[in-house]
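S.,

As promised, the pyridoxal-5'-phosphate run. Input:
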Amino acid sequence: MSKQLSKSLEWVLVNLDMMMNKFIIENIDLQKIIMPNINNDNYDISVLRIDKVHAQISGNKWFKLKYNLLEAKRLNHTKLLTFGGAFSNHIYAVAAAGKEFGFETIGIIRGEEHMPINPTLHFAKECGMKLFYLDRTTYKNRNEKYFQEEIKIKFDNPFIIPEGGTNQLALMGVEEIINFIKDDFDFICTACGTGGTISGLISSLKGEKNILGFPALKGGAFLRDVIESLVMERTNQYYNNWELITDYHFGGYARIDLDLVNFVENFQSMNNLKLDYIYTSKMFYGINKLLGNEHFQKCSKLILLHTGGLQGNAGMEYYLTKLKTKNIHER
Ligand SMILES: *Cc1c(COP(=O)(O)O)cnc(C)c1O
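Predicted complex:
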């Protein structure tokens, strides 16, 4: 590479980095909260508001995307391609990031196209993302090498970001989250989907403190191996200061019941903080239950990561109304 070119490339990277950091420095803070039905004098609970980093590239998705975007720029890609479900926060974030930082974006959506288009995909389209729908069987091949090669040809060499944004570059970004915590703490807790976020927390803490993950999907125990190998690849270390709490999935991904809805409404009335129904509310519910069962020693300091995802609530409205009016527990 010529010196000239590498200079201008450096300029692009420094500027993208600066643009991203501007958002971070201005917005993230720790917010003290209280929980329903426990003695709040016994614990010190704060929420790390990474959801506030950007209105659309919210929460953990920002940090997971950061080094992916820088790498895409470094390799001179103009196009990002990624995968996700129809309500995916990741799809939403990539569409917004493309618009904000100057990439074309392509979203490969799991399942058939539904009309009318839901709020998540509507937003993605508005940002300029091109959407393609893949039947669920074919979608399963998304991480296969042959499949990715086909995609590269079909879409003219996009920078491919995996579903949920989880890869080693995502861990690098998530590792920076810990820098925003100036206070001492005992536990840091996050909701889990693909396991990228908890993996980055584990790799940044290097065996210190305790990390709890709350899978938002049913049968989340499979994530243990996924997380272990993501962390191993990143750090070459085995850490055991983390645990998955798999009991609070509420029947599966994006499933909710009245008990959860009541908790969220109660919690929100006590704190100036909104939760999303797919991820954070399930974790907060789980933490509340663990506190009630005296799972944590008295005086424990807990930090709960607000990973964002509020955009998804618009898509959940329909089920919420159904739950409340007909008292249906399953959807
Ligand atoms: C994507 C997402 C998660 C899950 O993050 P992973 O890194 O996939 O485990 C958690 N919370 C919210 C709000 C999310 O959007």
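Residues 59-61, 89-90, 164, 166, 191-197, 276, 279-280, 307-309 surround pyridoxal-5'-phosphate (CB under 6 Å). The two ends are 56 Å apart (CA to CA).

- D.
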